[in-house]
Design a protein that fits this description.
By secondary structure, the chain is an alpha/beta fold. It is built from seven helices and nine strands. It has a single domain (about 10-180, about 210-230), classed as 3-Layer(aba) Sandwich (Rossmann fold), CATH 3.40.50. It is globular, with a radius of gyration of 17 Å.
Length: about 240
């Protein structure tokens, strides 16, 4: 069954840029009342101007448990919560800086844990909670992909039982061309994306707008819970170097 989002309250953590912003635009277009949240007031104000519809925004820092708790204390009931929190990092288990690795886990896993813990209790029984993980194991990417992303998927499976009948799922995007890559030199980024695109059956690296419809599908699919959906252009069909 496909659920209408008209007048439903949708909270998007990390909705001020990238995939989160693309999802906010889609959901608002469906008639939902959308609240986007992140750490930056400036980015939130700019994003809100780019979204047509009933838009609100709030400040939350998913690295801080109290910040997440206080943010959700402002809501009575929510229909859907989506979380795009989390910073990725390179480096394998044997050569990563421990402090950086711990920060990546705190951001990617624990940030979403806090959202599930405090946001999940505010979701209506007919609603949903959607996390974001990432691509599977890759050389020198063990911290962000193997540990944190796997943890997010298992967290969702657990919460799908604890919060039932609230639906809890995960979207696992592959490399996506978003502002997250802005710190990488332009030429190096283009070279990376071009190389990876040639190895994908679909032939290109996604932009945020290519990934966002999967989140919309999850919100509206009333018989979907406890799963992780990879959105990767066919990356699982072959070994990506």
């Amino acid at each position: 069954m496909t659920e209408s989002l008209v007048n439903q309250n949708v909270v998007i953590i990390g909705g001020s840029s990238g995939i989160g912003l693309a999802v906010a635009k889609l959901v608002a277009h469906q008639g939902a009342k959308v609240t986007i949240a992140s750490r930056s007031t400036e980015r939130l104000e700019k994003a809100a101007k780019d979204i047509e519809g009933d838009i609100h925004f709030g400040i939350v820092n998913t690295l801080d448990e109290n910040s997440v708790k206080e943010f959700f204390a402002n809501f009575d009931q929510i229909d859907h919560v989506l979380c795009f929190a989390g910073d990725s990092m390179g480096g394998g288990v044997l050569n990563s800086d421990i402090a950086t690795a711990q920060n990546a886990m705190q951001s990617k896993f624990w940030g979403q844990f806090y959202v599930g813990r405090y946001g999940g209790l505010k979701i209506k029984p007919t609603g949903s909670l959607t996390f974001t993980s990432g691509s599977g194991p890759r050389p020198h990417q063990a911290i962000s992909t193997v540990a944190a992303n796997a943890g997010v998927s298992l967290l969702a499976e657990s919460l799908a039982k604890e919060l039932a009948p609230v639906r809890v799922n995960v979207v696992a995007p592959y490399y996506t061309d978003t502002p997250m890559w802005s710190e990488m030199a332009t030429d190096a980024r283009k070279e990376l994306f071009a190389r990876l695109a040639k190895q994908l059956p679909i032939g290109f690296i996604a932009k945020a707008e290519d990934v966002a419809p999967t989140y919309l599908h999850i919100l509206q699919s009333t018989y979907l819970t406890g799963i992780t959906i990879p959105v990767n252009g066919g990356a699982l069909l072959q070994t990506i170097e």
